[in-house]
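ok new one. same drill as before - structure tokens go in, u give me an amino acid for every spot. 259 of them this time. try not to just spam alanines like last time pls lmao
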């Protein structure tokens, strides 16, 4: 069904655009309240503890609204769509509600005014539903099965090759106080994001290198922070960074000698 969800209003569950500043919680909750079939499917899958499918159908649906298919789901997309296109009954089934929505005068007015939901709104809803369920699972106690489902969901999200989605995914984990989970992800894209997008928070990049046991890189970050002439870092913090750099380089040497 996800490959046939091509209507932004069907996916989001609304006809009018929401505010740009809306949180993913509000976007997801509105989709649930408005009976979005995608939102309802995600709820059912979470109840069945099939979090892998939650990520897959959301990213697959999101790929319907971008010019290039999502690399994570393009092969799956190709396997379920016939070469000669979608069945006529499928299109009518999944777009019947959308056609009814647009037939009303209110919807026509919203389109004319430029306030109708767009492909961007649909993509935001797809991502918001992932983050909505993910954060609720990760908020559970670590020893619970819910948290373990959250960790599994993190692994599936981290495997995506959609850079825009990954950046939103990283921001979600950081903003919701799950940096410990974020920094355990071994990813070149995450490393680049931490170095560029979080350049004012070198402590986060330093912690990432330590967790990943990349001691040389950790030492370089600590040394750079300690010796930055443009930084207002107090002298005591610079000394701490220098000690950290020496410690990281020592660990790197010990690892080489151990090998």
């Amino acid at each position: 069904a996800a490959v046939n969800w091509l209507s932004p209003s069907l996916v989001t569950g609304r006809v009018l655009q929401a505010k740009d500043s809306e949180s993913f919680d509000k976007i997801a909750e509105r989709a649930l309240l408005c009976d979005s079939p995608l939102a309802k499917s995600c709820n059912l899958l979470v109840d069945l503890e099939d979090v892998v499918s939650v990520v897959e159908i959301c990213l697959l649906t999101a790929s319907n609204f971008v010019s290039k298919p999502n690399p994570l789901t393009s092969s799956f997309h190709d396997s379920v769509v016939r070469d000669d296109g979608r069945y006529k009954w499928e299109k009518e089934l999944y777009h019947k509600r959308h056609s009814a929505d647009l037939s009303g005068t209110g919807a026509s007015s919203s389109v004319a005014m430029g306030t109708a939901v767009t492909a961007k709104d649909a993509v935001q809803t797809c991502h918001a539903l992932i983050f909505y369920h993910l954060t609720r699972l990760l908020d559970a106690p670590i020893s619970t099965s819910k948290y373990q489902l959250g960790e599994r969901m993190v692994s599936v999200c981290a495997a995506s090759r959609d850079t825009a989605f990954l950046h939103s995914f990283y921001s979600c984990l950081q903003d919701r106080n799950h940096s410990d989970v974020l920094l355990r992800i071994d990813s070149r894209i995450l490393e680049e994001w931490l170095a560029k997008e979080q350049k004012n928070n070198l402590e986060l990049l330093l912690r990432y290198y330590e967790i990943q046991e990349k001691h040389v890189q950790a030492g370089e970050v600590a040394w750079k922070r300690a010796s930055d002439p443009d930084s207002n870092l107090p002298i005591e913090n610079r000394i701490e960074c220098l000690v950290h750099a020496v410690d990281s380089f020592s660990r790197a040497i010990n690892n080489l000698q151990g090998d």
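The radius of gyration is 23 Å. and btw The mean pLDDT is 80.
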